[in-house]
Amino acid sequence: MRPLGDALDIVKKDWRLLAALNALFFCVLIIGATIAVISPELHVSMINLIGADSISGSAGISDSSNQIQVAGLSVYSSFTYLLVIALPSVVLPIWGPIMGAARFFIWGVTYVTPLQGGMSMGDLLPQYMLMLIQGEAYIIAIFACIRQFSVAISALGLGFRQGVTLYLRSVADNLKLLLIVIILLAMAALYQALVLPALTSIL
């Protein structure tokens, strides 16, 4: 539990940065939604690109083996995107925020309003909770990337040995943040496989 406790301590210590990132990416989502409302053809094009079936999630899935498959695919997809955010950010720190902004913008364009023949409000409402969980996981990953970049800049003004020590300590701290990301993505996968179908059928 100590690594997870350390990760939570990091979040408490730099909560202002995390709060600012949440506000920033929420604004990006709102911008995407606003553009989609102004330009409905963009909304339709995005849904056609993604596919209405994937947008409505795992609706109608009741078989346990299929639910496990959905959970597995969700974990795979989420972790693949997480790697797309995190790995290039080691060399190019700005990459993480850019990819995160792109994901939130696409969400805003796609999930803003129901689309006749494609989505209903019953499809949309359960998706918002899924977006909230996955979105927070991505934001915490970006939060770790920005912290890493900040420490790297600070280390430049120190001696080589002291700078490397500080940077490696920061890497260890930020790896602990991935525990929170993993927990959130696992929650999102279980939600998508087990809860989302039930909510969609009810709504």
Rg over CA atoms: 19 Å
Instruction: Determine the N-to-C terminus distance.
Output: 38 Å
Helix content: over 70%
Count of domains:
1
Question: Secondary-structure blueprint of this entry?
Answer:
Elements: H1 2-13, H2 15-38, H3 40-50, H4 52-55, H5 64-89, H6 95-110, H7 121-155, H8 160-202
Helix pairs in contact: 1-8, 2-3, 2-6, 2-7, 5-6, 5-7, 5-8, 6-7, 7-8
Could you explain the architecture of this structure?
The chain has one domain (2-55, 62-202). The protein is 84% helix and 0% strand. The chain has helices at residues 2-13, 15-38, 40-50, 52-55, 64-89, 95-110, 121-155, 160-202. The longest helix has 43 residues, at 160-202.
Short précis:
It is built from eight helices and no strands. The chain is 84% helix and 0% strand.
Key words describing this protein structure:
203 residues, mainly alpha, globular
